Amino acid sequence: MLLVTGVTGLNGSAVVRELAREGVAVRAMVRDLAKARGAEVPSTVEVVEGDMLRPRTLGPALDGVERVLLISAANERLVEAQTGFIDAAKAAGVEHVVKFSGRACDPESGFRFARMHAEIERYLRVSGMHWTMLRPSAFMQVYFREVPSMTGDGVLSLPMGDASIAPVDVADIAKVAAALLQGKGEADRRYEMTGPESLTLDEIAGTVSSVIGRPVRYVDADPVAQREALLAAGLAPFFADALDELFAERRKGGDEARVEQSTHEAFGVRPTTFAEFVRKHAAVFRGEARPANLWAAGWLPSDR
């Protein structure tokens, strides 16, 4: 039995759909069964309730499971939730945990969620179970959030300076995650993933513009003003501060700006270019359709 957690989020739902497309039997864990319907979990997938922060609820989800893809919400209790789940998985006899992490995961990072993921990775490595760390870079899907300003004002405004980033399509990640969950690849190692190009925000804006047929220009947002705007829009200070840290790290360059295609190559996944991604979702970028998973339009995906 295979188990995927975090299936109401962007990546978890994509992995479950990929496994279902491949005809692989999989169990999906959610905190609320009603949310599984909103995440478009295929009807062929077994869905069970379980809350990582309440380990006693995890028994049905972990019963008979050999391999787990571990994803959960990015919040203040991320470390507590995932380390508790790792303990429960070990106690239930799980053999292998594939942890969804991040390319910039580092205990010395200025970005709090990168530090949290690094701490969880350390915990998993010494758990006694086999492990795999899947570390993707920024998701192409996060640019869905910018659609209103790109279609309305013709502006992509982010505090990135002239830094580059190598975003990856979640569909590519899902193919690799599905393969890892089926026992492909090597155990006890990390797999890094980025898209095939390192792009500036000017180039990203230009790509969107060329596909949707209207001008879109990049504006380097002031970080202080960006944070104030997010707070005014109702984002909690914890997350506003986290985003400020994230963009500060990205302005320095680093792992998310460097192209890494070895994982795509190892699993035979053709990397999606950003232009291909925008063309595939042209209706979304033109403002004519909504993303399949609304978390794709959020700053911090619930499963990252």
UniProtKB/TrEMBL annotation:
Name of the protein in its database record: NAD(P)-dependent oxidoreductase
SUPFAM superfamilies per UniProt: NAD(P)-binding Rossmann-fold domains
InterPro entries per the UniProt record, alphabetical: Ergot_Alk_Oxidoreductase, NAD(P)-bd_dom_sf, NmrA-like
One Pfam short name: NmrA
Domain NmrA-like: 2-277
Matches recorded under PANTHER family: PRESTALK A DIFFERENTIATION PROTEIN A (PTHR43162:SF1), PTHR43162
Superkingdom in the source lineage: Bacteria
